[in-house]
Amino acid sequence: MGNVQLLLRQHVGAPCAAIVKVGDKVEKGTLIATPTGLGANIHSSVYGEVVEVLEDRIIIKPDEEQPDAFVKIKEGTPLEMIKEAGLVGMGGAGFPTGVKLDTKIPGGAFLVNAAECETGLVHNVRQIEEDFARTLRGLKYAMEITEAAKGIFAIKAKNEKAVAVIREAIKDEPNIFIHLLADIYPSGEERAVIRECLGVTLGVDKLPSAANAAVANVETLLRITEAIEDRKPCFSKNLTVIGHLNDGNKPHVYFDVPVGTSVGELIEKSSGIEEPYGEIILGGPFTGKPTTVDTPITKTTGGIVVTMEFMDLHQAPTGILICACSGNEERMRDVVSKYNGKVCSVTMCKQAVEMKSGALKCEDPGNCPGQAEKVLKMKKDGAEYIVIGNCSDCSNTVMGSAPKMGLKVIHQTDHVMRTIGHAIYRKLRISKQVPQLPNGK
Fold it and tell me: The NADH-ubiquinone oxidoreductase 51kDa subunit FMN-binding domain covers which part of the protein (predicted)?
């Protein structure tokens, strides 16, 4: 096992401050960094010695022996223990869970994002199939803390085995239900989950509490149970490694990987990269970012994707259509560069709203009124190809106009989808509406 690098920014908010120094011996669960503002505690994920304390990370050399035992957090109320454990959302931006659960929603709904939104990632569904009891208990703890009246598991209908596991487990739970989602992207976006489960469309500046709801993903619930029942700090991560690997493109699922483990170590554990390859993505095909083998995983890392090589556009003039549901302009330009295209036009999805932070949010994730005007602009700017990063529905509307204008379409995720054997995102050929059982069970 190589050195473990624990980044001091693992979450939304300010980076943490190290409270250890070079030469300190640490154990699994040793508190090594604390928040300087909005944030969450960081604990060592291994037994070892601190060898470097840098501005952005703490580097630990692991001992050869790694016992299963860990330093337990102090006892307290369930909410206090969640905060002490350093829990953050394990499937998105990493908002501190203790802060999220400190908001009461009496009579409201606690929604569980089990959508496994990013194509190719499968660890959340696998967790449901193999360890649902602790996941369900985590939901009950979250409901009790927030005073929610009901809980709802939102999951894609295609995951039939996981759906069956949930239904069997909740059949005698009067306040816990299941809501089936269509197999589209971004069905797991927080406001999309609220819209689909509760019929409430939130504005881009509204939090789930505006719908008297809270949302967490399935791994977050599992870590809630660990914090409360086992007094376990949050120092491990579930994730998927998939792509252009020596043993094929099947997904490799890993549970309880020590946070700070390198991308390269997990790729090697998954049989290694099949050369030549295109890029390594940290995260999922839509929202992940290009990375290197030296990068450490964090509490929010959901996937590592190795892709096939990019085709060559031979410097063809290429337009970019930026979507709030996928890569930002920097990422889209990076993709065009890797395709050896030449950016000649940049436009933005008509539903993308720029927030104060500079990030984009979609007005109605997954529902698109059309992109013909944006496509026409790229055509007028001289584009031969357009690279889009849109959701399933936006991609569908682009395909209603771009081919008629003689434009060749590439989706930001094409090289990933071809690598893993998944259909590329173009025409939406399924209904966005999924039939539900009358009693939600």
Answer: 82-225
Q: Which residue has the tokens 């990987």?
A: 257
Query: 355: exposed, middle or buried (C-beta count within 10 Å: 0-12, 13-18, 19+)?
Result: exposed
**pTM of the predicted structure, to 2 decimals:** 0.96
Cβ–Cβ under 8 Å, residues 45 and 71: no
Q: What is the DSSP string of 211-279?
A: GTEEEEEHHHHHHHHIIIII---S-EEEEEEEESBTTBS--EEEEEEETT-BHHHHHHHTT-B-SS---
Q: Which of 25, 200, 45, 49 is nearest to 111 (CA)?
A: 200
How many whole angstroms separate alpha carbon 298 and alpha carbon 413? 23
What residues are paired with 17 via a beta bridge? 34
- Is 299 found in the same domain as 354? no
Q: What is the pLDDT of residue 77?
A: 98
- pLDDT higher than threshold 80 for residue 431: no
Does the residue 362 lie in any domain?
yes
Distance of CA 391 to the CA centre of its chain: 15
Residue 108 sits in the same domain as residue 202: yes
Question: Is the pLDDT assigned to residue 430 strictly greater than 90?
Answer: no
Q: Span 106-133, mean pLDDT?
A: 97
Q: Residue 373 pLDDT more than 90?
A: yes
- Same domain as 86, residue 56: no
- Residue 89 covered by a domain: yes
Peptide bond into 251 cis (omega under 30): no
Mean pLDDT, rounded, for 161-176? 97
Strand order in the sheet with 31-35: 16-18, 31-35, 42-43
The confidence score (pLDDT) of residue 1 equals: 80
Element (H, E) at 154: strand 150-156
Residue 397 in contact with residue 375, Cβ under 8 Å? no
In a domain, 429, yes or no: no
Which of 156, 411, 114, 117 is CA-nearest to residue 283?
117
Q: Return d(Cα 52, Cα 20) in angstroms, integer.
A: 10
- CB–CB of 105/209 below 8 Å? yes
